[in-house]
Amino acid sequence: MNRNILHASYDPEEFRRQGHRLVDRLAGYLKECIDAHDMPVMPWKEPEEQYEYWKHHLDKDDDPDAEEFFKQILQQSIHLHHPHYLGHQVVPPLPMAALTELLEAFTNNSMAVYEVGPASTAIEKAVVQWMISHLSYPGTANGLLTSGGSLGNLTALLAAKENYFNQSKKVDGKPSIMFSPESHYSIERAARIMGLDAEQMIHLPVKDNRIDVERLPTVLEKVKSQGKAVVALCANACSTATGTYDRLEELVAFCSENRIWLHVDAAHGGPAIFSEKYKHLLNGIEKANSIVIDFHKMMMIPALTTAVLFKDGRTSYRTFSQKADYLLKQENKWYDIAKRSIECTKKPMALKVYLMIRMYGTELFESYIDQTYDLAKDFAALIKSEDDFELAASPESNIVCFRLIRAGLPDYQLDKLNSKVRDQLIKSGKFYIVQTTLNNKLFLRTTLMNPFTDIEILKNLLTEIQRLAMKF
């Protein structure tokens, strides 16, 4: 082994030089995205073409050039900071949050026990308590940060299952979970990881894209008659496809009456709690047994950073109560996070959240929620005013689903038309949107994540869709 290579790779001056150049490049990239003159939102390449390019790049015999690599990544990636990015629920990160992510990566403090991440452990607790306070959770509440909503939902539902077995003197039936077909797929995935089969996953009836609370007593009675015991009910705040909020106060009442753990997947819509205008959508969330909120969706933090919060903090310890003398002490201490988390080597992800709170307070998050949610309502009104389009549902968040329509065309042909238009649209690089299926119909779906997107851009989107549709 060439020790000169090893030592040289840690050279502070080379790091300084490359770091300055990368930040300069990123700043120029950010300006280019915001200006968005002729820059495509995504430079489309077919998957095999993309693979061949990078495979060849990896096998090249020339001298490696970090700056060229950075340049190519920026050129060939989808541009989330571009105002025409209207696709998935992935935020264009705040520049300062991205810089803090570098600090997190470079210090690389693990989060299993206090001694391997002292500052980051304390900072995580401060961030969790800050969230608990804004959600009006009781003094018994506690929580942690984890890598994404999928892992967060699994962590919460594992706690719900353990809590059920801990509280019940006898098991009344096969442990089951209730959730809406509008729920994120990670809920069903979590249930499968927990060992539940299809019969133990109870899909609830929905009305207007939210759980139909009036039909829940009938569903529960049927479930019990089938020898099943409901461990938890999962609510959406908001749903992934349409951005619709379940009526949490009504679900709280139902779950409380029937002694069912209420878990709220608020990965996307939870930050509405910071908006005076929209926090009513979360009325009742303070009574949920567990909550998941993604900072990397509506709080402008790089992925992945998720809060998993428990109304009774003691319940979070039951899930991972196990012996590991080399690492964990037997008593439950808040600063030994591995006792409550699936992750052991965990990134110090709270640092960037903490700094954003310190620098901007809640005003930044309220401004972002208000602007994007308001824009969704304006876009919906624009769609309604156009004869060529149909709105799937009135938006409650920043998600808008719609589709192109033509008189006389059956639904299956409209589905094909909208899918073809969407395919041409993203390959052109002019806009990036996605699609979803609602009530067996294909709809185009936009999530308004970019603070530089405005109603004029959305007007241009509709015009471009109409233009492309004329080809088919």
Descriptive account of the structure:
- This protein is an alpha/beta fold and about 475 residues long.
- The protein is about 45% helix and about 15% strand.
- The protein has a 7-stranded mixed sheet, sandwiched between helices. It has a 4-stranded antiparallel sheet with strand order 10-11-13-12.
- The chain is globular, with a radius of gyration of 24 Å.
Layout of helices and strands:
Layout: H1 3-8, H2 12-35, H3 47-59, H4 66-76, H5 95-107, H6 118-134, E1 142-146, H7 149-167, E2 174-179, H8 185-193, E3 201-203, E4 206-207, E5 210-211, H9 216-225, E6 228-236, H10 248-258, E7 261-265, E8 290-294, H11 295-298, E9 306-310, H12 315-318, H13 350-384, E10 389-391, E11 399-404, H14 411-428, E12 434-438, E13 441-447, H15 455-469
Parallel strand pairs: 2-3, 2-6, 6-7, 7-8
Antiparallel strand pairs: 1-9, 4-5, 8-9, 10-11, 11-13, 12-13
Helix pairs in contact: 2-4, 5-13, 6-13, 7-8, 13-15, 14-15
Briefly summarize what is shown:
By secondary structure, the chain is an alpha/beta fold. 44% of the residues lie in helices and 13% in strands. The relative contact order is 0.13.
Strand/helix succession: HHHHHHEHEHEEEHEHEEHEHHEEHEEH
Q: State the total count of DSSP E strands.
A: 13
The 3D shape can be described as globular
Major sheet characteristics: 7 strands, mixed
Total helical elements: 15
